[in-house]
Amino acid sequence: MTTVNIHKAKTQLSRLVDEAAEGKPFIIAKAGKPMVKVTALDAPSDKKVRRLGFLRGQFSVPDDFNTMGREEIERRFGGRR
What we know:
Layout: E1 2-5, H1 6-11, H2 13-21, E2 26-30, E3 33-38, H3 70-77
Parallel strand pairs: 1-2
Antiparallel strand pairs: 2-3
């Protein structure tokens, strides 16, 4: 694992982060003393995650969705029109 001093890390941070994301972690040292380890996250890539529409076809919204429960809500909260 590569160790870089803090000055080099500041000047080459973009390249070092790209390398870490590709699986080449590195250590940042200050005055020769290791301070932090930079490594890739185990987060799923954007290509694997599909959030929008993931429940498509699993349920349906009732036609009266915007008005259902209106009487109950007005009764409980004293709604006035």
